[in-house]
Amino acid sequence: MKMNKNYLNLQDSYLFSTIAKKVAEYQAQNPEKKPIRLGIGDVTLPLVPAVVAAMQAAVAQMSCKATFRGYGPEQGYDFLRQAIAGYYAAHGVTVDAGDVFVSDGAKSDLGNILDLFDVENTVLIPDPVYPVYVDTNIMAGRRIVYMNANEENGFLPLPNVGIQADIIYLCSPNNPTGAVYNHEQLKAWVDYALANNAVVLFDAAYEAFIQDETLPRSIYEIEGAKQCAIEFCSLSKTAGFTGTRCGYTIVPAELTVEGEPLRKFWLRRQATKFNGVPYVVQCGAQAVFGEAGQRQIKANIAVYQENAKIISGTLREMGVWFTGGENSPYIWLKCPSGMTSWEFFDRLLTECSVVGTPGSGFGKNGEGFFRLTAFGDKAATEIAMKRLQKLF
Ligand code: MLT
């Protein structure tokens, strides 16, 4: 019996679990303190009324023999796939509902999609990055090359001539930096992927936070992207589904590798290893895309955008360098006084009772940087910023 020794190459603990442990220790030692959590990107506002009503109606259907449903299609119910395609159409992007695969979230799909690719492929990952892209490839034993995202390129690396890669991860608006690619920059990646027979795995989980209408919300706004890109999206941050779990992945019929359509293989993979998202949740997800749902989730997003303004306004006043916060719920700041990311984390936690995420947890280029999220409560965010301002 042999184990998958690639696991030995992982860091001992997932970033957000390490932080949760540190915060729990701090709370045990300081029971009177109630830390303000601006660390993990978890939403705080409840599901909107349109979603709740749709889910309640679905529960009522499930309680009656005539309308009860058992297994659904592994790739999601047509009503939801159509609603998602309609959402893209409303933003001027044509997506075939048959290319939409409903899942329990982007994180699972981003990990699971790797089943489709040979382990010999080289993976190109920006640094800093959402740790899931790195860890899932380490688990599989794939070669990873990193591209530097830094202050010089505004944390938006572009393809460079020397790079050879088969799988490319892009996330825009970016987690953790909040930076957003424009059309021209995304086109550079699509052109690179087409010229090098590479596949782009495009994480669009934060697209709903884009306020600047000139910025792309989907990689399919770029010509040629359907021949080289898979797009992952989630309702977690868009509609408060972090605990409810629903996302979707677009695998265009046009996307082939070595003459084989990836969509066919993804369907085969999902049908074998996944039994679909609960009917009740899919009904709630459908309501997100309806008229009332859209209006209501936009009101929630506006609350988070207001928090982002409070954070970025404070940093501006303090003269702290940062990215994000305008078209993204994340604010990526340079730690004051040359502190390391973890030094800043410890001071913020112990002296301000505020939790953030150390940039170094997202990769070596994250050292000296720090991520704050706008998903907290408005009053708590204001208090956190006042404490930060007082400390530095
Ligand atoms: C984050 O804080 O980076 C996200 O919440 C993690 C995730 O979406 O899995």
Summarize the structure.
The chain is of the alpha/beta class.
Describe this structure in words.
There is one protein chain. With 392 residues, the protein is an alpha/beta fold. It has two domains: 13-42 and 293-391, Aspartate Aminotransferase, domain 1 (Alpha-Beta Complex); 49-289, Type I PLP-dependent aspartate aminotransferase-like (Major domain) (Aspartate Aminotransferase, domain 2), CATH 3.40.640. The chain contains twelve helices and 15 strands. The strands form four sheets. It has a seven-stranded mixed β-sheet, with helices on both faces. It has a four-stranded antiparallel β-sheet with strand order 11-12-15-14. A two-stranded parallel sheet has the order 1-13. A hairpin with a 2-residue loop joins strand 9 (256-257) and strand 10. Helix 2 (49-62) packs antiparallel against helix 9 and helix 10 (291-318) runs parallel beside helix 12. The N and C termini lie far apart (55 Å). The model has no long low-confidence stretch (mean pLDDT 96). The protein binds D-malate (MLT). D-malate binds next to loops. D-malate (MLT) is lined by residues 40-42, 107, 130, 175.
